[in-house]
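Async update (no meeting this week)

Hi team, since we skipped the sync, here's where things stand on the single-chain job. The sequence we agreed to prioritize is pasted below, unchanged from the tracker. I ran it this morning and attached the output directly underneath so nobody has to dig for it. Comments welcome in thread, and please keep replies under the output.
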Amino acid sequence: VQLQASGGGLVQAGGSPRLSCAASGGIFSFSNMGWYRQAPGNQREFVARISPAGGSTNYADSVKGRFTISRDNAKNTVYLQMSSLEPEDTAVYYCNLQRLRENYWGEGTQVTVSS
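Output:
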């Protein structure tokens, strides 16, 4: 399984970029997908998660109401729609695929929010 995240960059505060993560391999539609982030000097932290069919989602309190996770199983892609960005959202964003005991990470995409 390989995960390729894209959509990051320099964004102004209040902006609404969308991150994408495309997965290779045949287990995407059977897997929980998540987004995590890591800011400089901090540990990687959970952002959002979506169940295999997309019927269940979870969010970190810090992004609840501002970020939306979704997926398109036909395209093997998970998305993170971000809105009302704050400088504190600056981090490298990683997508994660989890199924049973399997756990995969992408390389991450940098999101920098300017005030």
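Quick observations from my side:
DSSP finds no helices and eleven strands in the chain.
The mean pLDDT is 96.
Reply here if anything looks off.
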